[in-house]
Specification:
14 strands, 177 residues, five-stranded mixed beta sheet, six-stranded antiparallel beta sheet, Immunoglobulin-like, elongated, mainly beta
């Protein structure tokens, strides 16, 4: 097992067996990787990434055909306030300088959504975003809420400096406050 501050890599000791080598990134996603004495290969967001083991730790992938920015939701709970806003905590996992994009929330069980919210988060930074549910969506959250809350889906698009779009989705449990 190896740890470099934002990444934990572990495997069975045989770097030629892909299915037994995994890495856990700062975004808590587990992804497979292959390593040899000089390089590590892994996939993220549909792209193959290759890193030289002797290279410095990078905040974002090098320029190329893959999107260079990525955000992740922080936690699994999102308070829903009386003003119909959903409080989402988001962090920039990787970016050359800043992660820019938009996101919105939909209800998992009912038809309903929020407004789009634009964001700009510095590389490595965090932000709380507050998309506003429509009146009908807010009423549905109050009607559908259980002891565990109501399931919300977060949809977003990030645009990197090269104009490439990276779509993301995540789920949170909303609780009306």
């Amino acid at each position: 097992m190896a740890y470099d501050g934002d990444l934990i890599a572990y495997g069975n000791g045989d770097s030629n067996v892909t299915v037994h080598n995994w890495r856990i990134g700062a975004d808590r996603l587990v992804r497979p990787y292959i390593a040899d004495a000089d390089r590590v290969l892994s996939t993220a967001n549909g792209c193959l990434l290759v890193a030289d083991l002797a290279a410095r730790l990078a905040a974002a992938p090098a320029a190329g055909s893959c999107a260079r920015t990525e955000v992740a939701l922080i936690g699994y709970n999102a308070p829903i306030r009386r003003d119909c806003t959903v409080q989402l905590r988001v962090r920039c996992v990787a970016a050359p300088r800043v992660s820019r994009g938009t996101l919105h929330v939909t209800l998992a069980k009912s038809a309903g959504r929020s407004t789009n919210v634009r964001f700009s988060i510095p590389a490595g930074g965090r932000a709380t975003l507050a998309p506003r549910l429509t009146a009908a969506a807010y009423a549905a959250t109050r009607r559908d809420e259980t002891d565990l809350g109501v399931s919300l889906l977060v949809h977003g698009v990030i645009v990197d400096p090269g104009g490439r779009h990276n779509r993301f989705r995540g789920g949170v449990s909303g609780r009306v406050r």
